[in-house]
């Protein structure tokens, strides 16, 4: 929360950072902060004060926000990968392609696509009949953890979550992979050693973070599929970590390692000391 807040304040106050790339970074930081505020306070309340109860409507609201924002974050990674592709592969056309209007349209697309496609997930779970079991085997209201408490058949819930998840996250990951493949090909053609090293360092760290975001989600899905062979605590742990670690790493990888962001933070600190 602290790192993302500093990043947002720096981009807001530094006029030199009022550019499309940093607007996308601000959007990612906002998603991380809202996602953490949706999940972590309840998790801490459970572990610190043993405050386990959650209301029926509160549970499904948390479920919707989690699914929606995770899909939005994946889509934002995809747009940022496209931004890097244009910057490295078509640098002369970058100012005419990646404009403020492009960022606004991308934000609307990210919002609309994920809000509507993830909406049926909590609706399908809420329409189920819940009988005697009321204890969720998780510390957050994950879709299948809640649906398993129902007396009804949850096949439709499983199919829709699987289809929506792989349609959204899978398509984003494929486009990200192609973007970085083109970037790598363009970087390897660079004759200036310094430029190639800088491009590889920046894009490499971005790709590793995106890969981590996707891999931990894939592991979580696989542990659910093989739940009989895996301890029930493992999916719970992965679920919580998936909401914490990317949000903590994003401002470091995308922010602190960016020279312009570091300089912006330094200028703000100097102003405060004067």
UniProtKB/TrEMBL annotation:
Residue ranges of domain G-protein coupled receptors family 1 profile in the record = 3-254
Q: Where are the transmembrane segments?
A: 21-49, 61-82, 102-123, 163-187, 199-222, 234-256
Q: How does it sit in the membrane?
A: Multi-pass membrane protein
Q: Name one GO biological process term.
A: cellular response to lipid
* Listed InterPro entries: GPCR_Rhodpsn_7TM, Olfact_rcpt, OR51/52/56-like
What sections of the sequence does the record tag as coiled-coil?
none
Main location per UniProt?
membrane
Q: Which Pfam families match?
A: 7tm_4 (PF13853)
GO cellular component terms, alphabetically, are: plasma membrane
Q: Which UniProt keywords apply?
A: G-protein coupled receptor, Membrane, Olfaction, Receptor, Sensory transduction, Transducer, Transmembrane, Transmembrane helix
Q: Where would you find this protein in the cell?
A: Membrane
- Is Transmembrane helix tagged as a keyword? yes
Give GO MF terms, alphabetically: G protein-coupled receptor activity; olfactory receptor activity
Q: Which Gene3D superfamilies match?
A: Rhodopsin 7-helix transmembrane proteins (1.20.1070.10)
SUPFAM superfamilies linked: Family A G protein-coupled receptor-like
The protein's name in its UniProt record: Olfactory receptor 56A3
Q: Which organism is it from?
A: Pteropus alecto
Read off the lineage from the record.
Eukaryota, Metazoa, Chordata, Craniata, Vertebrata
